[in-house]
Amino acid sequence: MEVNSFLKDCPPFDSLAEEQRSWAVSQMQSVYMNDQNCNDILKDMRPALFIVRSGAFDLRGSDGRLIERLESGDLFGYPSLLSGREVVNKLKAIEDGIVYVLPQSAFDRLRNVSKPFEQYFIRAHGQRLLTEQKSDDGTDNDWSEQTVGSVVSMPPVSLSSSTSVQEAAKLMASHGISSVLVVDDTQLVGILTDRDLRNRVVAEGLPLDVRVSAVMTQLPESVYENRSLMDALTTMTSSNVHHLPVVNDQNQPVGMVTATDLIRQQRSDPVFLISAIRKASSKSQLIEEAQKLPEYLQTFASRVKQTSVLGRLMASVTDGMTRQLIQLYEQENGAAPAAYSWLAFGSQGREDQTLSSDQDNGLLLSNGLSDKQKNWFAGLGDYVCEGLNECGIPSCPGNIMASNPECRGTIDQWKERFRGWIESPTPKALMYCQIFFDSRPVVGPGKFYQEYREQIASLAKNEMFLGNLAILVNRIAVPLGLFNRLRTEDTDDGDTIDIKRYGIALINDIARIYSLQAGITSPGTAARLNALKDSRLLNQRDNQSLLEAWEFLTQLRLNHQLKVWGSNKPKNAIDPDELSTLSRRQLKTAFKIIKEAQQGVGLKFSRQGY
């Protein structure tokens, strides 16, 4: 009884039902630890969850660094339970005490029967990783470069929606899995999990011959196989799911990824922040969590090799804020009255967002809406854009936001807008295209958006339109003078160069032109260049040079923004004199690559312009 009483006030055991907690107590051992025996006990009894009842202990890494001071009610041992990795940490007893030990088998059973119990350790593990500068093997945590498809280890186990729940349970038992995909005519229509069987079948007393379609989760969240692990993690935490179907470009299921799969990568850094955003129950709470982003990004920035990870992280967090604001709006105004997609444009759409990026978003709506339905979506645009601004994502100076009626529209309206811009490429029309072609859906059915995106992609192969885009790109002079000397602008902050306008944005523009010609619908610059590797439009040497220049400039901008953040200094303008000799040389090389790429675009496309 004494152990049970203690655990009632010890998270996450306090979230267990009384019978679950009593069972957990029956599985525990109580050990006395001091500085002489603590590491021997740790070695002999692991893998296990350890709960400090009394005393004080220092948990230290293999290199001796202090990870955490453990006192009454603190837990340790769970990272190895979640990931399966060997335990390398050591324990030092500061004050002798009693420790309860829960074996892995009991820990796994509690995770399976209690969602709050499992979620606690997923969040705790993510928060632990946030405090570590490197992983235990000494490598940087650039885990999110991996694609979702790279961690899918087996073909999908699926069944049709007409299958009985008894047959479904047999199938899941024979494969040793806790969820199964529901597929009709090669398309994903649902997912069935252990919890569905327990809560919707057994608890409701339904017969075993009831069809899966009656109890499954319909149209579940999914992720494309070529997306990053960060995207999968964002979707899971934002939607509060542990099983995520993986689909190909045809929306056909190719596998399943779980929260445990991601944690086993030992790279779950964004869990804590994104989870906190998802749990925000009010706009004020969401704003409070969002204010932590700059500090969090600075911590994370020192631990990754490629800045593209940071851009995706920032975009993922903004996506999470957007989804949560949409959910809060729906709680007040009811569910969406028609199918739609919330679109991210510009840097958020390309997933190269920074701390200084402003909003660029819009709404893609179903055709044939009534005035009442249009008013619902107008309210959604106002609410979300205002909320993002309060969360620290500034409103767009050019009003490219879903709160603007010109950035909302049905599928037919958007197609007509693009057709008008492409056939009459005025300077304003070209500016709109540079923004709106860099789009991706944040909320809404993937197929709904993809069909629309492919239709407008076919419009973009207009030769005169591409020629005018090429002319526009060549009107911006790269800041290189005679003998490849850097040309600076005299500003209040000294002699500086805007590396966004004269560098990063130009590479974005060049990659966009080639992608439009090739029919590539990916919005990201790096993704576009990678997709162009096998095309005849851009040879591999020039492709690789542009990608390397883009990566160098985005890294340079990130380092500068982190350095000046919190000050009034411009976030995209750098002083070349403050750079090292090597960085100045690399900057000159990057601008030279851009200048040559501009000339290449001009030769290939601008003959059709005017």
Offer a quick outline of the entry.
This protein is an alpha+beta fold and 610 residues long. Helices cover 49% and strands 15% of the residues. The N and C termini lie far apart (85 Å).
Describe this structure in words.
The protein is α+β, with helices and mostly antiparallel strands and about 600 residues long. It contains 24 helices and 21 strands. The strands form six sheets. Strands 1-7-2-5 form a four-stranded antiparallel sheet, sandwiched between helices. A hairpin with a 2-residue loop joins strand 19 and strand 20 (about 495-500). Helix 21 packs antiparallel against helix 23 (about 540-565) and helix 21 (about 500-520) packs parallel to helix 24 (about 580-605). The longest helix has 27 residues, at about 305-335. The termini are far apart. The model is unreliable at about 130-140 (pLDDT under 50).
The computed structural class is alpha+beta
The major sheet is characterized as: 4 strands, antiparallel
Radius of gyration: 27 Å
> Beta-sheet strand percentage?
15-25%
Shape: globular
Helix content: 40-55%
Biggest sheet: strand arrangement: 1-7-2-5
Q: Tell me the number of strands.
A: 21
User: Unreliable stretches, pLDDT < 50, 5 or more residues?
Assistant: 129-142
**Terminal CA distance:** 85 Å
> What is the number of helices?
24
Mean pLDDT, nearest integer?
A: 86
